[in-house]
Amino acid sequence: MPLKKHHILSAILIIVLSNTLFSQNIRVCKTCDIKTLQGGINAAQEHDTIIIEKGTYKEIDVLVNKPLTIIGKDYPVIDGEMKGEIITITADSVTVDGLFIKNVGTSYTSDYAAIRLKRVENFVIKNLVLEKLFFGIYVEKSNNGKVFHNKIIGDAEEEYNSGNGIQLWYSNNIEIEHNFVQRVRDGIYLEFSDNCIIKNNVSSHNVRYGLHFMFSNDDIYQDNLFEKNGAGVAVMFSKKIKMYNNIFRENWGTASYGLLLKEINDAEIMYNTFEENTIGINTEGSNRIKYIHNNFINNGWAIKVLGACYTNTFTGNNFLYNSFDMAYNSKVNDNEFDGNYWSEYTGYDLDKNGFGDVPYRPVKLFSYIVNRTPETIILLRSLFIDIIDFSEKVSPVFTPDNLLDNNPKIKRITW
Amino acid sequence: MFKILKYSFFDLMRSRWSYVYFAFYLLLGIVLLFLNNDLSKAVITLMNVIIILVPLIGTIFGVMYYYNSKEFTELLLAQPLKRSSIFLGQYLGVAISLSMSLILGLGIPFVFYGLFMSNAIWDFSLLLITGVFLTLIFTALAFNIALSNENKIKGFGYAILMWLFLAVIYDGLFLMSLLFFEDYPLDKLSLIGTVLNPVDLSRTLILLKLDISALLGYTGAVFKQFFGTNFGLIVSFTMLIVWVALPVLRIAKKSKKKDF
Amino acid sequence: MVSVQDLHKKFGKNKVLTGLDLEIGEGGIFAVLGPNGSGKTTLIKSILGMVIPDKGTISIHGKSIKKDSNYRKQIDYLPQIANFPSNLKVKELITMIKDLRGNSTNEASLIELFKLEPFIDKKLGQLSGGTKQKVNILLTFMFDSPLVILDEPTTGLDPIALIRLKDLIKAEKAKGKTVLITSHIMSFVEEISDEIVFLLEGKIYFKGTIPALKTQTNQPDLEHAIASILTTNHV
């Protein structure tokens, strides 16, 4: 019996070793036996590593159908010549590392991607450079993967004929870190994707959104920079999204926001900086959201509240030199403002407790007027406007009279 | 003209009021910068001061100087000098000495604060340039009013009324007309309305720096072209120059026909 | 020297000059007289170019004064009210006027004559009315122009200064200059002037020597002669 046991053990060992220790390295290069990436994949055994040497490989519809590690050496170029999708991964445990993929075909009927992951687990996509793309990294019904250190540079100009940089669709537990995405439609797009972490990315100059959530719950995004996008981040129809420590900057334009919230509940927005956006946060039909310790600096509107928004709390935020701190389009207010710092606050603090003795009223009459007739924005900061704002402040007629910060901070809040 | 300018300028530079004006700006600059310690906030407060106070002071000084130096003007008129050069010289003397008080009064505290190492230098320079323009414009308007009114009290009254109108009332009427015609496209109307008032024009010019994000939020294509590009800056400055030129030309014209 | 033709001027509805003609020859002292509102000052200011006539021409040395402001180099003018920029010092004012007009010939002797040395470094705002008038006279006479126009030159002067002024005017005459004077002090006029120009209702009523005026009005002295003109024309 002990002998037989030994045999089984050694059999297992052989299987394991053949898979790992004895897994092969396959070289692909212009002067090698194997001259194409697809050729390398075809020749490989499961868990082999394919090393692609420097060079240009004109290939499309490359299919990765077994667990492999594909590594580019000195950024070999995979050129799709605008013909269609370039790499499709249908096997679990695939790693793609260090390729320069360009010229993905554009189509109005199929969403061609530079790399597509289809119903797979445990993938790693890293160190890729994507240029001239339609969709970049398209993760479809795949879970537990990592997408990091990729650089995606598109040339999108219109929404209708461009794709997204990184797209998750019905994919959970994905980590997206340290990517650099610009000039695509949505930098990063999540649809029906839960429990994902999006961290340390830079998403800029995108035609639509820097980051976009649709019907996705329990996701976290933090330490990202969203700059000069159509809108920084849009969170729509999603629950329990955590937004920490991001920077939203210079998202300028008619319908441009640092952050757009639409029909979302129970989110946390903390330690973010909204700087020089047309609208810092535009929130519509969103409830039970905590806004804590955010900086709103030099925005046109720091926060614009539209439609029914209930039980939101704004605490310990800094509102600095925004043209308007708040805009409300209704007379009803069910949101709480407490202990924020407002640079426009002109009250005093006689008891020296750090809080102003007179409440601050963040919604001005002029903000109401501009909502109604946008062209009146040209009168911003005129003496006449200051006078009517003052009279509205004394006796509110057009703006919600309970919309007050009863404990406005005297000094800018630090954390 | 330059001789007259020189004498008017030195005369004013020695007057108590120039020092008061200078001291006021110096104090304002110091309070804003060193007690407040917040450059962005200081720039916003300064904008309000420049938009409202600079025109007022320009108006008052202009009218006052004209009436007070009436006899001196008559002395000059008997000299072999061109009339236009007498009045333009006096006008420039007032305008330049006021501008100097403004630039030095605000400039000195800002320089000590370390302006040259700060990014706010452009915002600040823009503020000063607009302030100088407003001084030139309102002093010229004041001279016009004084030239047309022999009666000192009347002239003073009209001048203050003009300031009140351009600084406050105009915007009220402007706002009302925008609200009244809100169903029509208002892009052009609002830009024209702005350009026709030097106070609004200067305010917009400064807003292009301070509140650009808000201004860009608005839809109209005309707006976008105006605010989103250098076009707005160029048009604004051109209009400011026109606003200086027109009243100055009228001073020259009016002074040729006036009896003393 | 000065030739005025068909001069019209009205201020609003008030017609001040209505077709005035006047010829003033080279040399001599001419007193322009007339009741209040008769147009004396308007005439003088028209000659100086400070009032723009509605109609008519004025020429000096045969040249119309309309276009060119340089003819004023030939005129020394003493304005009625001497009010100078109060922040300037006397010295600076003198320098300034010299700067504007060109070099002066005899400022030093004039300063001496009117005893102005103690005030030379004072600001004009600090001077008394009489001293200001002295400065005013100084500024007028320090240039050597062929035509001298004096508007109420005696205002505020003390007797000594008055004597000095008369001497000064006579000296100018001796140089062959033309002097135009307006004054309310008839004794002063009588003493100093060669000819009278009497204005009434915007026109020249009389022009000639004082004896001629006395003969015409049949009055023993100038004061009464003037008074008689006024009563015959106004009552």
UniProtKB/TrEMBL annotation, chain A:
<dbReference type="InterPro" id="IPR006626">
    <property type="entry name" value="PbH1"/>
</dbReference>
<feature type="domain" description="Carbohydrate-binding/sugar hydrolysis">
    <location>
        <begin position="52"/>
        <end position="191"/>
    </location>
</feature>
<dbReference type="InterPro" id="IPR012334">
    <property type="entry name" value="Pectin_lyas_fold"/>
</dbReference>
<dbReference type="InterPro" id="IPR026464">
    <property type="entry name" value="NosD_copper_fam"/>
</dbReference>
<dbReference type="InterPro" id="IPR022441">
    <property type="entry name" value="Para_beta_helix_rpt-2"/>
</dbReference>
<protein>
    <submittedName>
        <fullName>Nitrous oxidase accessory protein</fullName>
    </submittedName>
</protein>
<feature type="domain" description="Carbohydrate-binding/sugar hydrolysis">
    <location>
        <begin position="198"/>
        <end position="358"/>
    </location>
</feature>
<dbReference type="InterPro" id="IPR006633">
    <property type="entry name" value="Carb-bd_sugar_hydrolysis-dom"/>
</dbReference>
<dbReference type="Pfam" id="PF05048">
    <property type="entry name" value="NosD"/>
</dbReference>
<dbReference type="InterPro" id="IPR011050">
    <property type="entry name" value="Pectin_lyase_fold/virulence"/>
</dbReference>
<dbReference type="InterPro" id="IPR007742">
    <property type="entry name" value="NosD_dom"/>
</dbReference>
TrEMBL record, chain B:
<keyword id="KW-0812">Transmembrane</keyword>
<feature type="transmembrane region" description="Helical">
    <location>
        <begin position="88"/>
        <end position="112"/>
    </location>
</feature>
<feature type="transmembrane region" description="Helical">
    <location>
        <begin position="20"/>
        <end position="36"/>
    </location>
</feature>
<feature type="transmembrane region" description="Helical">
    <location>
        <begin position="42"/>
        <end position="67"/>
    </location>
</feature>
<keyword id="KW-0472">Membrane</keyword>
<feature type="transmembrane region" description="Helical">
    <location>
        <begin position="159"/>
        <end position="181"/>
    </location>
</feature>
<feature type="transmembrane region" description="Helical">
    <location>
        <begin position="124"/>
        <end position="147"/>
    </location>
</feature>
<protein>
    <submittedName>
        <fullName>Cu-processing system permease protein</fullName>
    </submittedName>
</protein>
<keyword id="KW-1133">Transmembrane helix</keyword>
<feature type="transmembrane region" description="Helical">
    <location>
        <begin position="231"/>
        <end position="252"/>
    </location>
</feature>
UniProtKB/TrEMBL annotation, chain C:
<keyword id="KW-0547">Nucleotide-binding</keyword>
<dbReference type="GO" id="GO:0005524">
    <property type="term" value="F:ATP binding"/>
</dbReference>
<protein>
    <submittedName>
        <fullName>Cu-processing system ATP-binding protein</fullName>
    </submittedName>
</protein>
<dbReference type="InterPro" id="IPR051782">
    <property type="entry name" value="ABC_Transporter_VariousFunc"/>
</dbReference>
<feature type="domain" description="ABC transporter">
    <location>
        <begin position="2"/>
        <end position="226"/>
    </location>
</feature>
<dbReference type="Pfam" id="PF00005">
    <property type="entry name" value="ABC_tran"/>
</dbReference>
<dbReference type="InterPro" id="IPR027417">
    <property type="entry name" value="P-loop_NTPase"/>
</dbReference>
<dbReference type="InterPro" id="IPR003439">
    <property type="entry name" value="ABC_transporter-like_ATP-bd"/>
</dbReference>
<keyword id="KW-0067">ATP-binding</keyword>
<keyword id="KW-0813">Transport</keyword>
<dbReference type="InterPro" id="IPR003593">
    <property type="entry name" value="AAA+_ATPase"/>
</dbReference>
<dbReference type="GO" id="GO:0016887">
    <property type="term" value="F:ATP hydrolysis activity"/>
</dbReference>
